[in-house]
Amino acid sequence: MVTDLLRSVFTPDIEHDVREPVFRFTVSQSAAVGLIPPHPTVMCALLPLTLVIISTVNAVVAVATYTIVIRRRGSIESRLGGYGAILPVVAILPFCLVDWLQTHNLVIFVGIGGNCAVLFFRCLMAIHGTLPPYADVDFKSFVLFFISPVQFKFDPQTGQVLKSSTADFLQVLLRTCQTIAIVSVLLPLLIQHSFQLFPRRPDLNNNFFDLFHWSHLLNNYAVASMTGHGLAAASQLVGTTIQGLTGMAVIELCDSPLTKSTSLSDFWGRRWNLLVHIVLKGGVYKPLRKNGYRVGVAAVATFVVSGLLHEYLLYLFSMKARILGDENSAPAIRYGIQSAFFAWNGFVMLVENAVSKHPLIVWMSNNLPRPLITAFVIGTVLPVGHWFTDEYVKIGFFEDLSLGMPMLVWIPSEGGNE
Q1: What span, in angstroms and rounded, lies between the C-alpha atoms of 167 and 272?
Q2: SS (H, E, C) 285-311
Q3: How far, in Å, are 31, 86, 308 from residue 222 at the CA level?
Q4: What is the dihedral of CA 258, 398, 343, 366, to 10 degrees?
Q5: Which of 34, 67, 325, 348 gives a 20 to 30 Å CA spacing to 174?
């Protein structure tokens, strides 16, 4: 009965978006702008239930990890229990949950798969003793570190979760509304133009110089901006909900990565998807450094693992075609291209670290306008940005995301009488 009830929520007939504008604003005699609300099933059922499910999973894994790993810390049994039981279960759990729920929406896939990936690295942190000090104070702090899909803010001195004041909550709510407003304009625009706002270069895969053509760079920037704002909007919705219900402060995943980054290290380490950065640093980088590996080796390994993480999510996404029974007609996913993207970023970061003390680089950092520095930083990865986003575009991820977002759409008038 529970399975049937959940599937009735997670498999509604929302594959074809038939929402209509609830408001229309006439902008000329020939056109109007319409506001399409989020799909009610997505906002009122899918997202809340997904949040409950993954929070429950997190709590169970936290208790198991504390019992098997933390209480036996330093013993062979702790390592065997972590690597032999907990990590394999967490790795296959998203496939079991998606198959059980029979969900069709790729945003739910991301929520389930991304959450379990974060859990996986948190478990590695527990196994290797690289947990943040505030998460290792006692059982309660450990569970709080694990349980939330977005990370709570902790006081590093006391290990206590920071409280959120009314003013803090209102500021977070305002930023959430601002992000959603950007998505509501940019997402329908990109969908309408098939994610190519500017002419696509015809020989992009074979002509090296096309990677640096202005139209290709602007297309990549637009889709990267949508990806960043979409990630921020989804996490802010979850974070605002949790912050409002619990009164606890949570971190924000993105901090203007495409407009304020001063280096590639700043982009990946302090501005883009901070939750993944935190768990990759604690679950991969710190254990390698702890075992004597050099900084460069640990950094490159972290980027390689990040690429494998995204390949893992792509493989999870392929289950949608199997659930819908259209494997033959579904677009083929290219595996390896996202790993190449992160490998390139790892290489560029090594070069950045090698030349960061050069007098010319120091002078540029101190004297050039910040927007120009940001342009240089983004320019190191923008030519290959499509390696990261193309698969998401191809499999319809952004269309699924649009179901949970308000959309401002351009409505031409019939007969020019609007």
Answers
A1: 25
A2: HHHHHHCCCCHHHHHHHHHHHHHHHHH
A3: 25, 39, 25
A4: 0
A5: 34
CB atoms within 10 A of CB 51: 18
Q: At 407, which amino acid appears?
A: M
| pLDDT tens for each residue of 190-216 | 999 999 999 887 666 667 888 899 999
Kindly report which listed range (246-250, 306-310, 410-414) carries the lowest average pLDDT score.
Answer: 410-414
Residue 222 neighbours by CB under 8 Å, 6+ apart: 186, 190, 195, 197
CA dihedral (385, 388, 390, 396) positive or negative = negative
Its pTM stands at 0.89
Output the 3-class SS for 191-203: HHCCCCCCCCCCC
Residues whose CB falls within 8 Å of the CB of residue 200, separated by 6 or more in sequence, listed in order:
215, 216, 219
Handedness of CA 220, 223, 227, 232 (dihedral sign): positive
Q: DSSP 3-state assignment of 44? A: helix
In this structure, the dihedral spanned by the alpha carbons of residues 89, 95, 99 and 100, taken in order and rounded to 10 degrees, is 30
pLDDT in tens, 316-347: 999 988 887 776 767 889 999 999 999 999 99
Structure-derived torsion over alpha carbons of residues 217, 218, 219, 220, reported in degrees to the nearest 10: 50
- Residue 244: CB atoms within 10 A of its CB come to 12
pLDDT tens for 55-70 read 999 999 999 999 999 9
CA distance 232 to 211: 27
Average pLDDT over residues 280-305: 93
Element at 352 (helix H, strand E): helix 337-355
What token pair was written down for 68?
A: 């098997």
Contact assessment for residue 68 and residue 90, using Cβ atoms and an 8 Å cutoff: no
pLDDT digits (tens, 9 = 90+) for 349-374: 889 988 988 999 899 989 999 999 99
Contact by Cβ (8 Å): 395, 106: yes
Q: Report the candidate in 209, 155, 184, 187 with the shortest Cα–Cα distance to residue 35.
A: 184
Structure tokens at 136: 């290792």
327 is written with which tokens? 């494997």
